[in-house]
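Sanity check

After download, print the first record. It should look like this:
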Amino acid sequence: VLSLALRAYLDHGPTATSVNNKDENGGNASPVLTEEQRAAMEGLVDAMENVSDGIGDSQFMHMLVLPPVDYETLVIDVEETTAIGDDVDDGIVAVDPAALSILQRLEQLLPDPKEDEEAFQSSWDVVIDLFGRESVRVKEEALQREEECRGIGSGGGGGSFECDADNLQWRTVCTVGRVLIHFDFLTKGVLVEGTFQ
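Expected structure tokens:
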């Protein structure tokens, strides 16, 4: 859905001269892509369509939301206890660098909190309405602590990263949701020819 929605926005999204893209204050209701943003989005969509985890086509979301499981060390018996000092699975998973790169590129499509505060806040408002203010606060604080400790926030090197699985899943779901909100998927769906004139 994400790839389809972004590709449709590239092909049929509003331009600076779209007459039916005005809000009640005379500004643009939907984001108009600059040439730089358009190139970044085209590169991102191409990358999403080309990356694979070996299971099927375009599985970067699978790699981020459902990271690989080490079945050899997986404990299935929920009643099994560990002694103090034993290694405990702390939910840390290795993250595919290509998938993490796509996530970081998705985050760059989001509106800047300083340059476009209203658009930035409106996507967060929907996320807060869906998940609850306290839940979002707790998840964002956990993600921030992990980024500070591990330095994974905006690094884009080719090495492998390790992340908390829950934080990675939250970061991915939240980013994808906010991108879809920002580019009008919730209000207009997948754009078709003639949506903006």
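If your output differs, re-run the checksum step. Summary of this record's structure: The mean pLDDT is 77.
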